[in-house]
Structures are given as structure tokens and as C-alpha cells.
Amino acid sequence: MTAHQALHPVATMCRVLGVSPSGYYAWRKRPLAPRARADVALTAQIQVVHRESRGTYGAPRIHADLAAQGVRVGRKRVARLMRTVGLQGVSRRKLRTTVRDETARPAPDLVDRQFTAAGPDRLWVADITYVPTWAGFLYLAVVLDAWSRRVIGWAMDTHLRTELVLAALDMAVVQRRPTDVIHHSDQGCQYTSVAFGRRCAEAGVRPSMGSVGDAYDNALCESFFATLECELLDRQRFRTQGEARLAIFDFIEGWYNPRRRHSGLDYLSPMIFEETHERDNRTVPPGSTIGEGAAISLSPSMALP
Known about the structure:
Blueprint: H1 10-17, H2 21-29, H3 34-52, H4 59-68, H5 75-85, E1 123-131, E2 138-145, E3 151-157, H6 162-176, E4 181-185, H7 194-203, E5 205-209, H8 219-233, H9 241-256, H10 270-280, E6 289-290, E7 296-297
Parallel strand pairs: 1-4, 4-5
Antiparallel strand pairs: 1-2, 2-3, 6-7
Helix pairs in contact: 3-5, 4-5, 6-7
């Protein structure tokens, strides 16, 4: 009635709806119930989290974000309030780009669809996707750490030559300095090339490749590309390849790695997951303390002579 009182008299609407004008005005002056007031405040928090997620989070991730802020609320209540204000997350789809070189000999499959790792830099997964722009395709190659789902290497260019995947591998090697890591990919010609195999040998990386035409043999990388597509590429159009480069850089380094909550990581972001486990795995000698800046102070009895 409040929304339509500029068009129709209140008395007329009350008569049509079968309520008294005095009852209507009394209802308007009545304060909200505590539960309703709490819903209003919680809805505002939900809208902030959804906006900060770039409009991508659904109820599970918003619920996790609120929990990290100390807000105790049920997931179903979050979902109900999101429906009330018309908020929703985004859904996925996936694409394929690499083509097999029939003359090349692929590396053995060292993973066998077991995309789990006991720690960092045990298993990397890699693949290529394309990004449409008005000026033509831009191609993106990535390397992910299977343990934390973090994108540790990436490269973009307007071609699909082997240099593209070499650049992504080089970034991963420089950032992580692995000692014994498996690099798993599909059997695309870029990954079966002599140059790529030589670079892996130089860096101490063991190549692994899944079977032909089976997305499940590189499901972890496919999952990242599906996230990229539904949260960025499906929602934005790029006039130039330069615009696409900037947007993808911001998505990976400004959102996905440091902030985006991952259901497979107990709703932590890849970087927070790595930092949390690094902190938890630190050993402190008995009798010592951790001071400001995480510096470990030894007790006098443990001091060096």
C-alpha cells in the first residue's frame, strides 16, 4: 500500500484489501520484531559480501565469509535472505583448446586422476584456454598447485605456440623453486614438444599427461577455467586483447589467489590456505615464545654458548 499510495487513496486500498485505515497506520508505526531487525542488518552484510565477491558468491561462500567475520548464522537463513533481495551466485561451463600432435610421444600419466597432494609443489596441473575479444582471441596458459589450488604460473599471448606454456612454466619455477614436482597436463602439442620436455628436465620437473579427449584427466585445471569463465569471461566483453589481459591479471592476482574462497579448501582462499598451513606447521622449541612479527625467542637455557 505504501508503494501505491501516490496512485490510489489509502482508504480505497484499505477497503479493497479488507483492512481498516487505523489498523494500517498502527501497523506502520509498530516497531520491527527483533528477528526482523536482525534480518535487515544481516541482509546488509550479505549485500556487502556479495558485492565484494564481484557478484559471484552464492550462499555457501557468503556463509563462510560471514563466519570468518564472527557472524554466527545458518546457511539456509543466508540463502533465504539472498532470495528476498534477488542475490545469487554464478554457475559454470567449460571449454577446450589444446590439440594433440599425433607424431609426438606423450609423457606417462603419473597422476591417474588422483588430484591430491600432501603438501606444496608435489603436483602441478596445467592447461590452456582462450579468451574472446573484439580484436581476436587471447590465449591463457596456467599452472596450478594441486595442494592449494593457487595459480603459480600464467602467461597470455595471441598465439598457441609452445612459448606460451613455457612462459607459464617458467613463472611457476621461478616463484616456487621446486625440487621434485609432477607437472600434469593434457596431450596438447605444446606440452609434448621437445622444447617443453627439455625445459622440464632442466628445472627438475617430471611431466605427466592424461589420456586423449578426457577432461576428467585434468579436472582440476578444468575446474579453474570453469570458474574463470563463469565469474569473469561470461560477464564481461573485451574490446581489445589489452583489456582482457588487465582483467585476467586482476582476476588471478587480485581476486582468485588472495581472496576467492574455495570449497575444496574449507572455504579459504589459496593464499590464505598456504599461509595458514605454513603457520600451523612451524615448530617452536620448548620454553621459547613467539613475539611480535612471528619471531621465535629462545629461553636463556637454550641460548647458544
